[in-house]
Design brief:
The structure holds two protein chains of two kinds. Chain A is an alpha+beta fold. Chain A has four helices and three strands. Chain A has a three-stranded antiparallel β-sheet. In chain A, α1 crosses α4. Chain A is elongated and about 50 Å long. Chain B is an all-alpha fold. Chain B has one domain: Rhopdopsin 7-helix transmembrane proteins. Chain B is built from eight helices and no strands. The chains are: A alpha+beta, B mainly alpha. At the A-B interface, α4 of A face α1, α2, α6, α7 and α8 of B.
Chain lengths: ~100, ~240
């Protein structure tokens, strides 16, 4: 069994999942990629939207020819990812 | 004039510069650790920040006290001019130096102790209350050693070297636990250089040029920590 993720690590995992998908992802995919339940993902997404780390937009899906929601990472979200990586490197280097 | 030990005259001033550089490095690490604490609210980052703040306090006190000691001609002239006014008061100047050295030693040893406790992984720690009593005992010993070291400076540097060797050991474990992370190795080398520098200070009574070697090693250690900090922060 893995170690329980902290709130900050969960936020990092959500944002990383979006970044790995080229900056935008469908909410269902995000749920699987970040390994979170629907309820928990929604609560985190609310927080991320509030802090302007992500935005939710509607996009036309070519195959189905209808609008679907996508979650996009913002510049602020990308900056958070970079800062979190630095923080993790600091933690590893100084044994914290 | 009260002095803990005599250093080579030609080196006076250079050591202040070295300590000044180390002070800046300690402040940078303390500031970044505090920034991380504000982001994730994990206490260990606040303690780590406090530890490096204590290192900078110790270095600042050392720079100030040594600076006053080195300005010998100016200080003596002022003392002579003022003696009719101040009278016997100047006899207590030694007390000022002892206080300064005590503050320098207590904060430096406190910082090493804090870094040692933080660098211990939680699984190796004991129960909370036992740990608190252990910290209490350590604080008492740090204060006692700082007082005793005012009469035998060797005690301070020896205790520093022992604490630093334990820190190096913890950082070696950390280096292995982080899949031989280069930055973790760099931090380990940094503390290793500071530890060897402190060992050199222990033997200053044999030859005072060892003080110069010790200062260079300690500066090397802090520059190594600065290099790691730079690599981490500029990623």
């Amino acid at each position: 069994m893995g170690v329980r993720r902290s709130r900050l690590e969960l936020v990092f995992d959500v944002l990383l999942a979006i970044q790995n998908k080229g900056g935008k992802i469908k909410p269902t995919h995000l749920m699987y990629k970040s390994n979170l339940s629907h309820k928990l993902l929604n609560s985190y997404l609310e927080e991320l939207l509030l802090k302007e780390l992500v935005v939710v937009e509607e996009e036309i899906v070519k195959k189905k020819k209808r609008a679907a929601k996508v979650v996009k990472i913002t510049e602020k979200g990308l900056a958070f990812l970079a800062e979190f990586r630095r923080m993790r490197e600091f933690t590893d280097a100084f044994g914290l | 004039m009260f002095r803990l030990f005599f250093t080579p005259g030609w080196f006076n001033g250079y050591d202040l510069l070295f300590e000044g550089i180390s002070l800046v490095v300690a402040l940078l690490i303390a500031a970044y650790s505090w920034k991380v604490y504000r982001l994730n609210r994990e206490n260990k980052f606040a303690y780590f920040s406090l530890a490096f703040l204590l290192v900078s306090v110790s270095l600042a006190v050392s720079i100030f006290a040594s600076g006053v000691l080195y300005s010998f001609p100016v200080r003596e002239t002022v003392a002579q001019v003022l003696s009719p006014v101040t009278g016997e008061g100047l006899r207590y100047a030694d007390l000022y130096y002892r206080m300064a050295f005590f503050a320098e030693m207590a904060s430096m040893l406190g910082a090493w102790l804090l870094i040692f406790l933080i660098s211990q992984k939680p699984r190796d720690r004991l129960r909370k209350y036992f740990e608190l009593s252990q910290i209490g005992l350590f604080v008492y010993l740090v204060l006692l050693i700082s007082w005793v070291a005012n009469f035998r400076h060797v005690v301070f540097y020896l205790t520093s070297a022992v604490l630093l060797s334990l820190i190096v050991l913890n950082y070696y474990k950390n280096y292995l636990n982080t899949n031989r992370n280069k930055n973790a190795r760099s931090v380990m080398y940094g503390f290793f250089l500071i530890m060897v520098g402190n060992l050199f200070f222990v033997f200053v009574f044999l030859n005072n040029s060892l003080y110069v070697a010790g200062q260079l090693l300690v500066l090397g250690g802090f520059l190594q920590l600065l290099n790691t900090y730079r690599k981490v922060v500029r990623r």
